[in-house]
Structures are given as structure tokens and as C-alpha cells.
Amino acid sequence: MIQFTDISKSFDGRMVLEDVSGTFKPGDTNLIIGGSGTGKSVLLKCLIGLVKPDHGNVLYNDRDFWNSDEDTRKQIRREMGVLFQGGALFDSKTVAQNVRFPLEMLTNMSESEKDDRVNFCLSRVGLEQAAGRMPSEISGGMKKRVGIARAIVMNPKYLFCDEPNSGLDPLTSIKIDELIKEITDEYHITTVVITHDMNSVLEIGEKVMFLYKGHKVWEGDNTTITQSKVTELNEFIFANKLLRDMSRQ
Ligand SMILES: Nc1ncnc2c1ncn2[C@@H]1O[C@H](COP(=O)(O)OP(=O)(O)OP(=O)(O)O)[C@@H](O)[C@H]1O
């Protein structure tokens, strides 16, 4: 479980996050949504330890990340898998080498144990046939799958996905969303997904947090989101004309 309380952050005197709190539970796919520049990525960075909040706490199963010693922080980091925007694959490594990379860096596993784990993760995301290919030889959707395989290779307790659908067509996006949700259920991971894709919200948004100008202004799920009375949220949802037309029918 991840519990964060009163996270605030400013840059050069400009507040970009103010007193944001929340709880993310194991087995849940938690979406953080909001328009551009509302602080989603800064919040994610405060959670995963890339940006230190000005104040506030982030607890990982009761371990206070920002007030822990370096060893505890290292341990918590090892329990995180991160799917970066764009996949962030190494261009000069094959698909299998990309997935294997965290095992090389962070474990003492034998070569055959690493082989087994890489093969398992690649088959879990449906890419066993692509193991020897280079990132330049595979599609955008496949790159995301490689990113997911690499993010889960260390068997994480916490999975963070920053805009997993960026650059993908709607059908491929849904498949990636479903894969993230399936993996979250299957391995009982606490998953956090940043998105501004309303399709994702409707498909996998069992837990949704909406940020507006650095504040959390709504929290709920995909069954109630379209009935919210929060003006900023409605503007965000119904910026999509199709949804606006559907809501009038
Ligand atoms: N390192 C930084 N230094 C200064 N300002 C920053 C820094 N990182 C983020 N910001 C600012 O913080 C605000 C929130 O940025 P953030 O990247 O969190 O937005 P976002 O909601 O993720 O947007 P998008 O959907 O466009 O990625 C923006 O105004 C951004 O310019």
C-alpha cells in the first residue's frame, strides 16, 4: 500500500502541487488524471523518489520514504517497477537484453535464472517471439510491452506507469491498459498510472484521482466520474466532443 499525505512542491517560488494526499492499495490500478501541467508527473516523481517534496510524507507499507535511511530507500526502490513515457528502451540492446538489464544491475541471479525470468516476463506480455529484435524493429505498442516486461522483471510490489498510451492508436492503447490491469490483479501489485486518456479512465478507472492546478479536486471511479459536479473535471471529461454528445443522449 502507498499512503501519501500533504505533498507540496514548488519550483522557483511557484507552487505546482499543494497538499495532495491519497492512498493506493495492492491489487488496484490507480489512475492520476488531469490536464497538461496540473502536476501529475511531479506527483509521480515525488512518489518514486526522483523529486523531494517540500513537505509531506510518502509511506510504502508504513515505511516513510523521504525520512528513511539510504538503505531503506534503496530497498523500497528495488520494490518499484517503472514504465516511463515512451518506453525508455536502450536502442543498442535487444528486447531480451532490455528486460534483463535490471536483473544484471540489481541481482545475483545465475545466468540461467535470469534467462528463465526474462523468458517468463516476455511471454507474459506476449513477446516471446521478439526477444532477439532491436527496439527500432518493433512497433510502438510492442515497445510499451517490452517496457512493461522490464518493469515487472524484478517482481515489483509497486508499478508506476507514466502515460502508457502516449503515441498509441486507441485499440493498442486499450490492449496496453488491459495488460497493466491484468498484471496488477494477477500479482497483487499497487499500480499507479498517469494518463489524460479518457478511454483509459472508462476502461480501467476503478480508482481515479483528478488533479487541477496542483490540487486534488476529485476522487472516485469510472462509474461515477461522468456524474461529478466538479466543473473542472467536467470540462476535462467533456473536452472530448464525442463524450459530450453521448452524455446529452
Ligand atoms: N523541474 C522543474 N522545474 C521547474 N518547473 C517544473 C519542473 N518540473 C515540472 N515543473 C512545472 O510543474 C508544473 C506541473 O508539471 P507536470 O509535468 O507535473 O505536469 P503534468 O500534469 O504531468 O503535465 P503533462 O500532462 O503535460 O505531462 C508545470 O507547470 C511544469 O512546468
TrEMBL record:
Which Gene3D superfamilies does the UniProt record give?
P-loop containing nucleotide triphosphate hydrolases
SMART domains for this protein: AAA
Per UniProt, what is one GO molecular function of this protein? ATP binding
**Residues covered by the ABC transporter domain:** 2-238
- Identify the domain of life: Bacteria
The residue stretches assigned to a coiled coil in this entry are none
- Keyword set for this entry? ATP-binding, Nucleotide-binding, Transport
Matching InterPro entries: AAA+_ATPase, ABC_transporter-like_ATP-bd, ABC_transporter-like_CS, P-loop_NTPase
Tell me which PROSITE patterns the record gives. ABC_TRANSPORTER_1, ABC_TRANSPORTER_2
Q: Which PANTHER family match?
A: INTERMEMBRANE PHOSPHOLIPID TRANSPORT SYSTEM ATP-BINDING PROTEIN MLAF, PROTEIN TRIGALACTOSYLDIACYLGLYCEROL 3, CHLOROPLASTIC
Q: What protein name is recorded for this chain?
A: ABC transporter ATP-binding protein
Source organism phylogeny = Bacteria, Pseudomonadati, Bacteroidota, Cytophagia, Cytophagales
